[in-house]
Amino acid sequence: MKLSGSIVALITPFHNGEVNVTALKNLVEWHLAEGTQGIVACGSTGEAALLTTKERRVVLETVVAAAAGRIPVIAGCGAPSTHETLAMMVEAKEIGCDAALVVTPYYVKPMPEGVYQHFKVLNDVGLPIVLYNNPGRAVTGLSVDTVVRLAELSMVIAIKDSCDDLTRVIKMRQRIMKDFSFLSGDDPIATAYIAQGGDGVVSVSANVVPRLNQQIMQAWKSKDLETFATLRDKLLMVHESMFVETSPSPIKYAVSRLGFCGSEVRLPLVPVTESAKEIVDHALKTIGLVAA
């Protein structure tokens, strides 16, 4: 399975403290219509760490059923311990997810050998693995050497790289000798990432601009550099506004402005401030998503 293009890091909509299953289904259908090429469910943007085990299963089952095999569904599977991550992956495979997005074990700060052994155990589940390098949240990152070593495992097929070092993708491409997907995990620099050899992006902003996000990926693939540059400049304000406060609060507010669901988040996350709303609203108005 080759992952590429715009893959949405899907929010988890809530209503009165419960997962809003109807809104979740509607969001999946909208993304299919808008050209999104993959969905990450129960990732950081989906508030996975704040979901119960039962809720996580509901979200994954809902997204898999709604997608109905039309685009890949990638389940976020991150935990400090190997055995808990393993259980998450087994469940995701049972539900019918196409792959697992697996962040490095957070909080425990394992050594590189521990990280390798962690993924070696997970490899035996038989579900394709997307490595997730996000040292800003997980503390433990994935060095280029570690990624190259992990790529030798049969089920490791891609990396989501949330890192501002744009030389990493060049170094990894030069050393990984198999079909492997390189995905940016940082919207504001995703265009620079694919210009360095990346295949696509796992995008927060795609929750509100899925078609434009896919169009910019297609423009690069088609070597339409004029369209690529125009869309890059057009989307930068949107990308930056989605991180004006702790994600996913701004993106959930933005999705609420489009009418799909409310902006409810779970503690310890809090709703965006009024000043942040103004920034998000300005970005949405500038590109014509909401009325000026």
From TrEMBL:
UniProt-annotated site: Part of a proton relay during catalysis, residues: S44, Y107
One GO CC term, this protein: cytoplasm
Species this protein is from: Candidatus Odyssella acanthamoebae
HAMAP family linked: DapA
InterPro entries: Aldolase_TIM, DapA, DapA-like, Schiff_base-form_aldolases_AS, Schiff_base-form_aldolases_CS
Keywords: Amino-acid biosynthesis, Cytoplasm, Diaminopimelate biosynthesis, Lyase, Lysine biosynthesis, Schiff base
Matches recorded under SUPFAM superfamilies: Aldolase
EC number, as in UniProt: 4.3.3.7
The keyword Cytoplasm appears for this protein: yes
PANTHER family: 4-HYDROXY-2-OXOGLUTARATE ALDOLASE, MITOCHONDRIAL (PTHR12128:SF66), DIHYDRODIPICOLINATE SYNTHASE (PTHR12128)
Active site positions, chain numbering: Y132 (proton donor/acceptor), K160 (schiff-base intermediate with substrate)
GO biological process: diaminopimelate biosynthetic process; lysine biosynthetic process via diaminopimelate
GO molecular function: 4-hydroxy-tetrahydrodipicolinate synthase activity
Main localization, broad class: cytoplasm
Family: Belongs to the DapA family.
The protein's name: 4-hydroxy-tetrahydrodipicolinate synthase
Compartmental location: Cytoplasm
Catalytic activity line of the entry: L-aspartate 4-semialdehyde + pyruvate = (2S,4S)-4-hydroxy-2,3,4,5-tetrahydrodipicolinate + H2O + H(+)
Pathway: Amino-acid biosynthesis; L-lysine biosynthesis via DAP pathway; (S)-tetrahydrodipicolinate from L-aspartate: step 3/4
Subunit architecture: Homotetramer; dimer of dimers.
